[in-house]
Amino acid sequence: MTETKLMKGNEAMAEAAILAGCDAYFGYPITPQSEVLEYLAREMPKHNRIVLQAESEVASINMVYGAAGAGFRTMTSSSSPGISLMQEGISYIAGAELPCLIVNVNRAGPGLGTIQPGQGDYFQATKGGGHGDYKMIVLAPASVQEMADFVYLGFDLADKYRNPVMMLSDGAIGQMMEKVEFKTYTKPNIDKSWATTGKPKTRSRNYITSLFIQPERMEQHNLKLEEKFKRIRENEVRFEEINTTDAEFLFVAYGLSARICQKAMDIAREKGIKAGLFRPITLYPYPYQRLKELAKDVKLMLSVELNSGQMVEDVKLAVEGKVPVEYYGRMGGMVPTPEDIVHHLETLIQYHHAN
Known about the structure:
Radius of gyration: 21 Å
CATH architecture of the largest domain: 3-Layer(aba) Sandwich
Helix content: 40-55%
Number of helices: 13
Shape: globular
């Protein structure tokens, strides 16, 4: 059974969290994602679930740490500077191997910046914004539908790998309204015998910690985590391709930028430019291998981002110099039009043809 509604991205995400069996939500209001806390505060108690507005983002992520350690399906959400405050707690959660969902509805920065959409948190999400060697699975929705769908996927991946998962959205997708279909979801039966739910006589005590004083023990834990991250890279890469089979020029973009690039691709093709679109859905693990394969058949790749150029570094790493990689972006909450992107592509084509 499915149900279709017209909803904001933030509200669709919150409704999906309830349907996904989220037991507890801890958060602090910050634009442009405050609707998540407001929606859950109204709806979660109807299902006997926990919602708490913490005194700060630092408090909320540590509440997530505690609830996850007790075996609860738990999440938080915030926007860019709020996520920065959570970084220490996220590192602790990753080090303790606890599952949770963290949603970042990006605003433009740095600093307090503006409440308009941005993608300047890419490095923070994918390269480990906190201390130590850890990784989060990072999902990048490009629609209100995916804001809902990726909640289900995010919780399932978090439980599967006992690892935090981040959904990296932005203010535009969080605030826009679209039709969303809520499909029937069945929560998987996950073994959480590791959780601190009290000690029965039938087993030894469960300890959850990210503290290992002895360097030999710490290194063994690091190696265990690295083995898990390797499994994630082997099994959880996700991406979307549009018109890549005959493309000579490839837009590479995620989230809101990918939506704009899809229209730019159509405009370019109307002008006789064979453009395609490659959209990473997982920003970690990043689809390096597929981009490397596509590099053999295109003349140029253009990374389109709402920042000063961050994902473009991963695109360059993927293609290993086999094809020119260029960047186009806007910052400060400014959003390019499809025509802006096509014009920039035409300029690049002329430049590379001349040189």
